[in-house]
C-alpha cells in the first residue's frame, strides 16, 4: 500500500480525532451513501419503465410496420408480399386495414379504432396474454365473424359476451358520398359482428376493435387495398436490421419502421427524463460531498503539526496532497460502496417481491418495474469519483501549502 494511503487510513480510524470532525465525516459518508443509493434506484426504475413500455408495445404492435409514404392506402401485390417474405428473419406478414369507425351496441355508441387483420393474426398469438375474457378468434367454426374488443370499448358500450342476440354494429361512411347526413342510414356502410373476446393492454389501446380483414374491407370499401403490412420476426433477429432490409427492397414509396421507431417519442421522453434525473441526483451527491470538503479542511488544521513533522522527515507537498485526497476518497468510497450495495439490494427486493405497488388494479404489472443495468452503476461510481476528486483537491492543496510554510 502506498504510504499516503497508509497515513490516510490511520487518520480515518484514529480514535484521537476530534468528535466534531468525526461527525462531519460520518455525515458526509451518509450523504454520499443516500445520494448514491437514490441514483441507483431511480435509474433502475426508469430502466424498468422503458422495458415495461417495450413489453406493452410488443403485446400489440408488430416488429416492423410498412405504410405508404403518401396517402392512407396502397395496393398489395403478390410480388410485394414475396419481396417482404423473402427477407431473412421474417416469420409472418399480416395485411391490415385500419381506420376510425362508429361502433354501436344496443342503445350505446362510440367512436372506435377498427383494425381488420387476416388469418395470420391468430398465428402470432400476440394478444394471448392480454385477453381478460372470451377467446382470441376472428372466424367461428360455422363461419361467424367475431370481434376482439378492447376493455375501454366494452365499458363504453356495456358489451356482454353472454348476450348472443345483440350484435356489435360497425358503421363507416360510404365512399363517394359528397355530403354526409348522419341521420340517414344510406350514408353509412354497416357491418354486424359478434363480440368474441375482450383484451386489455394499456389505456392507449382502449379504443380498438379487431375484426376479420374481409369484412372490414367490405365495410370501408377497400378494393384489394391495405393501410399497412405488419411483419413479425423469428427469434434472434434484430428489428432495426430487418426493417432496413425491407425498406431497401420496397423503395421510397413505403415507410418501414421497427417497433422502437413507431414509439420513438415516448422512448425518447423516458430517456430525457432519466438524463435530467441523473443530473439532478449528481448535484445532490455534490451537495452531500461538500461535507467532505469541510471535514478535510478541519482535519488539515488539526493535523498541521503532523504535516510539519512529515515535511521535516522529507515529505513533499505532493505526498501531503495525496494523503488528504486519499482521506477524502476513503470517506466518499465508503459511502458510495454502501450506497451502491443498498441500491442494488433495494432493486433486487423490488424485482423479487414487488414491495412497492403501482396502486393500479388494472395495470399489467402490480409493482413498479425495476431493471438493473450495470452501465448505470458504473456511471454512478464515476460520478462519485469525480466529485470526490473535486471536493478533496482544494483542502489537500491548502494543507500541503500550509505545511510548507510552517517548515520554512
Q: Supply Rg.
A: 32 Å
- Structure class: alpha+beta
Stretches with pLDDT under 50, minimum 5 residues: none
Strand order of the largest sheet: 3-4-9-6-8-7
How would a textbook summarize the main sheet? 6 strands, mixed, barrel
Tell me the strand percentage band.
Answer: 15-25%
> How many H/I helices?
12
Instruction: State the total count of DSSP E strands.
Output: 12
**Could you give the distance between the termini?**
30 Å
Tally of individual domains = 2
Which percent bin holds the helix content?
40-55%
Mean pLDDT: 85
Query: Secondary-structure element sequence?
Result: HHEEHEEHEEHEEEHEEHEHHHHH
Protein name: ABC3 transporter permease protein domain-containing protein
Transmembrane segments: 20-46, 275-301, 331-351, 377-396
Domain ABC3 transporter permease C-terminal: 281-400
Family: Belongs to the ABC-4 integral membrane protein family. LolC/E subfamily.
Task: Give a structural overview.
There is one protein chain. The protein is 53% helix and 19% strand. The chain has 408 residues and is of the alpha+beta class. The chain has two domains: 3-58 and 266-407, no CATH class; 62-262, no CATH class. The chain has a six-stranded mixed β-barrel. The chain has a two-stranded antiparallel sheet with strand order 2-10. Strand 3 and strand 4 (108-117) form a beta hairpin. The mean pLDDT is 85.
Amino acid at each position: 500500500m502506498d504510504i499516503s494511503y497508509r497515513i490516510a487510513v490511520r487518520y480515518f480510524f484514529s480514535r484521537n480525532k476530534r468528535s466534531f470532525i468525526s461527525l462531519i465525516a460520518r455525515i458526509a459518508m451518509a450523504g454520499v451513501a443516500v445520494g448514491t443509493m437514490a441514483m441507483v434506484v431511480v435509474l433502475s426504475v426508469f430502466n424498468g419503465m422503458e422495458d415495461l413500455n417495450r413489453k406493452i408495445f410488443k403485446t400489440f404492435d408488430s416488429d416492423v410496420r410498412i405504410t405508404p409514404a403518401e396517402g392512407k392506402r396502397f395496393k398489395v401485390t403478390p410480388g410485394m408480399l414475396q419481396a417482404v417474405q423473402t427477407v431473412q428473419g421474417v416469420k409472418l406478414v399480416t395485411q391490415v386495414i385500419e381506420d376510425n369507425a362508429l361502433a354501436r351496441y344496443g342503445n350505446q355508441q362510440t367512436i372506435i379504432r377498427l383494425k381488420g387483420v387476416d388469418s395470420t393474426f391468430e398465428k402470432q398469438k400476440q394478444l394471448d396474454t392480454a385477453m381478460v375474457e372470451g377467446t382470441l378468434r376472428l372466424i367461428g367454426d360455422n363461419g361467424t365473424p367475431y370481434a376482439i374488443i378492447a376493455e375501454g370499448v366494452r365499458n363504453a358500450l356495456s358489451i356482454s359476451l353472454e348476450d348472443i342476440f345483440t350484435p356489435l354494429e360497425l358503421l363507416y361512411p360510404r365512399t363517394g358520398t359528397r355530403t354526409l347526413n348522419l341521420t340517414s342510414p344510406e350514408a353509412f356502410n354497416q357491418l354486424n359482428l359478434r363480440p368474441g373476446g375482450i383484451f386489455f393492454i394499456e389505456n392507449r389501446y382502449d379504443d380498438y376493435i379487431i375484426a376479420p380483414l374481409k369484412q372490414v374491407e367490405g365495410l370501408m370499401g377497400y378494393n384489394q387495398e391495405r393501410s399497412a403490412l405488419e411483419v413479425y420476426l423469428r427469434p434472434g433477429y434484430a428489428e432495426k436490421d430487418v426493417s432496413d432490409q425491407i425498406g431497401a427492397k420496397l423503395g421510397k414509396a413505403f415507410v418501414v419502421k421497427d417497433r422502437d421507431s413507431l414509439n420513438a417519442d415516448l422512448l425518447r421522453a423516458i430517456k430525457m427524463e432519466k438524463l435530467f434525473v441523473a443530473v439532478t441526483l449528481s448535484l445532490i451527491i455534490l451537495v452531500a460531498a461538500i461535507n467532505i470538503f469541510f471535514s478535510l479542511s478541519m482535519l488539515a488544521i488539526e493535523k498541521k503539526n503532523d504535516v510539519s513533522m512529515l515535511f521535516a522527515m522529507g515529505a513533499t507537498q505532493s505526498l501531503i496532497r495525496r494523503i488528504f485526497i486519499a482521506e477524502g476518497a476513503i470517506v466518499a468510497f465508503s459511502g458510495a460502496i454502501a450506497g451502491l450495495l443498498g441500491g442494488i439490494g433495494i432493486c433486487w427486493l423490488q424485482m423479487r417481491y414487488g414491495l412497492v405497488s403501482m396502486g393500479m388494479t388494472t395495470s399489467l404489472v402490480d409493482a413498479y418495474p425495476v431493471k438493473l443495468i450495470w452501465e448505470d452503476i458504473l456511471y454512478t461510481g464515476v460520478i462519485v469519483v469525480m466529485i470526490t476528486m473535486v471536493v478533496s483537491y482544494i483542502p489537500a492543496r491548502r494543507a500541503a501549502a500550509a505545511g510548507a510554510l510552517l517548515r520554512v
